[in-house]
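Risk mitigation, structural track. In case the binding assays with magnesium ion fail to produce interpretable data, a predicted complex structure has been prepared as a fallback.
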Amino acid sequence: MKTEIIRDPDPASIERAGRIIRAGGLVAFPTETVYGLGGDAMNPEASRKIYAAKGRPSDNPLIIHISKISDLTAVSADIPETAWALAERFWPGPLTMILKKNSSVPPETTGGLETAAVRFPDNRIAASFIEASGGFVAAPSANLSGRPSPTDIRYVIEDLDGRVDMIIDGGRSRIGLESTILDLTEEEPVILRPGFVTSEMLSEVLEKVSLDPGLSSEDPDFRPKAPGMKYRHYAPKGDLTVVYGSPENVVKYINEQSSLMRERGLRTGVIASGPDTGKYRADSVKNAGDRHRPSDISSALYRILREFDDEETDEIYSEAFDGPGLYCAVMNRLLKAAGHKTVNADMLVKEAP
Ligand code: AMP
Ligand code: MG
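Fallback model:
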């Protein structure tokens, strides 16, 4: 398939993109979180094509993207008051809500579930594209299954050129991590995937909100409720370790490991934050931004993982970015990318004689 790449989307190209979706084709498009791989959410054949293009297991449901709040009623007949309140407060924005689906949403779009995930993205190009497409665009992230989500068109092209009809450029994704997923189908709202909209922010609207215990469990039989969270997502090709400890010990441990690895002929990389970036002696040191600004780290993380792939880095070490709010989403993705491989440098660094 020949993929048309739109560098400067104008109303005519967005109209063309919409026609592709209405005819059952696929278009990758920018959002404020990551790029999406879109198809008509109401067309089962389009959803099947999305799974095929991504190489994604078909039990992993898609998010339905809408461009006006009132369109919620077209996908769900059972919308709690809290959903309207959340939509008023957070839409357009990086919050996905899980609701009971109605019969117009095909099971192919929801991975066979009786629930549907819905989001109204905060991106001008996304909004006009969704509208031109008929209002309901099913989309997972626009990467091949298992690779980090793309935050720049460059990586969408790398993964999907020849597999979709069109790719629309929208520059770098502002947030850089996938949306917060909130389940509203149980008695109390549950966060199934942490994101830019934090539980602290949700508490402004909700009396109660909790985190899916499956997210933090180390027990492999304890499955998270969002089907996508069970896969080893977001992973770079190299081996990634998250290093906890005092900044001093983290630098020391990573530098020790880097020299050991280099002696073995392996290429090493570090995900570091200011002001410590200059202290590392790996082959490639990536600055994820200011560690006191988690939004810096969130917008840089996937790009950095992709760059390490491009550079064929074998061993990657990352500082840990622990903290409240958005740090929770950053660490969730980082630990998944690392397959939960962590070390505590405070226990491992040798005291100077
Ligand atoms: P992606 O945008 O690639 O991260 O994919 C969307 C993710 O949304 C999937 O991996 C699922 O984990 C989650 N999701 C979509 N629909 C549902 C649903 N009905 N129930 C729970 N999780 C869902
Ligand atoms: Mg994804």
